[in-house]
Design goal:
By secondary structure, the protein is an alpha/beta fold. The chain is about 30% helix and about 25% strand. The chain has 3 domains: about 70 residues, Arc Repressor Mutant, subunit A, CATH 1.10.10; about 190 residues, Vaccinia Virus protein VP39 (Rossmann fold, 3-Layer(aba) Sandwich), CATH 3.40.50; about 120 residues, VC0802-like (2-Layer Sandwich), CATH 3.30.2130. It has 15 helices and 19 strands. A 9-stranded mixed β-sheet has the order 3-2-1-4-7-9-8-10-11. Strands 12-14-15-13-16-19-18-17 form an 8-stranded mixed β-sheet. Strand 2, helix 8 and strand 3 form a beta-alpha-beta unit. It is globular.
Length: about 400
């Protein structure tokens, strides 16, 4: 690829300045006047962003980065690797290829991957980077994916789509029909080209809204990274009409917390109870799933209240979320708060509670941090309580 950014001296400069303050760097004189200074600064900024998110790209030589925004919007390697673990086959076509991180990992599970990207410059960058990363079974097509599908006589094992919101959809309720490509409108056509489709959406999408627009959904995956929900995946199969399984995953440094349940199936064995020795807070992917009764039934632990989404047990269990040992339970009133928490330091969480964390801190002069974790919540008897806990690592 004949790109001036790849000149050895410029590459060395980009590497040496990775992590530097771009605003300060921008004020300096361009040491390479034959190349646009903005382009070089963009490479430095994007490479800095890639260090944690895209370590494979960061560690490779002669990688070209697109805009900083493209790097911010792309899947992280950890979520891409998890996504690729969910499906496999001989052929996959990615209709919205982007920077190609997902396809890098799909290429390890499929014999052939087609990367479609309507932005010709970005497609060219991805093609170059795949060569640098020695990916030989991923083929880049710099055109609208709809053209590829119309022209191709192939039937793919999987279609992968990551639709983007149209600019004119800002401020509206997030719906798939407001995205490009318009998946609900094109679904029947897609099914002519593959029996299995994986659709990635932003975590902003309401699950019920997604289901109202799609058909043949078999699984919904909620993927969180370090307890922050990053994406939803709708897995659909032509002709499928059975139960929908909701699968959550919270990817941590040393493990992946998983939990699943069948959407809409009646849960009869969940229970409520007052605080016991241990307290549990579900991870972000479970919170997004809404499977709160299912958590109680699966782990056989009590919910504190229908709307509190906190759980308790007498004996410690392995739980997909944060775990705490309850040191004391107090009523939320002036005397108790003055005696136990006023003018002290604590980490505060509110669940089903009428006051905000900010108001509580200001009202009782509680500093942030320390080893105490206080949950302001409502118990099964509708009493406002505070659980004073220590965190279990």
């Amino acid at each position: 690829m004949n790109n001036p950014i790849l000149h050895p001296e410029i590459q060395e400069y980009i590497i040496q300045n990775t992590g530097a303050d771009i605003t300060k760097l921008a004020l300096q004189k361009n040491p390479f006047p034959e190349v646009d200074w903005i382009l070089i600064l963009n490479q430095i900024e994007a490479r800095t962003k890639a260090k944690e998110k895209l370590p494979t790209w960061f560690g490779a030589e002669n990688i070209i980065y697109p805009s900083k925004i493209s790097v911010e919007q792309t899947s992280s390697e950890k979520t891409a690797a998890y996504k690729a673990s969910l499906i496999s086959g001989k052929t996959l076509i990615d209709l919205t290829g982007g920077f190609g991180v997902d396809d890098y990992y799909f290429s390890k599970k499929f014999k052939v991957v087609a990367h479609c990207e309507i932005n010709e410059e970005l497609s060219s960058i991805v093609k170059h980077n795949f060569q640098q990363l020695e990916i030989k079974n991923c083929f880049c097509y710099p055109t609208d994916s709809i053209n590829i599908l119309h022209e191709s006589k192939l039937k793919y094992d999987w279609i992968y789509i990551d639709p983007s919101r149209r600019n004119d959809s800002k401020g509206k309720v997030f719906m798939l029909k407001d995205c490009l490509p318009n998946v609900p409108e094109l679904l029947d056509f897609y099914f002519e080209k593959s029996d299995s489709i994986l659709i990635k959406t932003a975590p902003l999408l309401d699950i019920s809204a997604g289901l109202s627009e799609l058909k043949n959904v078999k699984n919904i995956h909620i993927i969180a990274l370090e307890n922050e929900v990053k994406e939803l995946l709708f897995e659909i199969h032509k002709g499928y009409s059975g139960e929908i399984t909701l699968k959550t995953a919270n990817i941590l440094k040393e493990k992946i917390e998983t939990f699943e349940f069948v959407l809409g199936r009646e849960t009869i064995s969940f229970s409520y109870g007052l605080p016991q020795q241990y307290l549990y807070e579900p991870n972000a992917s479970i919170m997004k799933s809404g499977g709160f009764d299912e958590v109680s039934a699966t782990f056989q632990i009590n919910k504190l209240h229908k709307h509190s989404h906190l759980y308790t047990s007498e004996n410690l269990i392995d739980f997909p979320g944060r775990k705490f040992e309850v040191q004391k339970v107090i009523s939320y009133n002036k005397n108790e708060m003055k005696n136990e928490l006023a003018n002290k330091q604590a980490n505060i969480t509110t669940r089903n509670f009428p006051e905000t964390v900010e108001n509580i801190r200001k009202k009782w002069k509680i500093k942030n941090g320390g080893n105490l974790y206080c949950f302001f919540t409502t118990d099964v008897k509708d009493n406002k309580i505070v659980l004073i806990c220590t965190k279990i690592i």
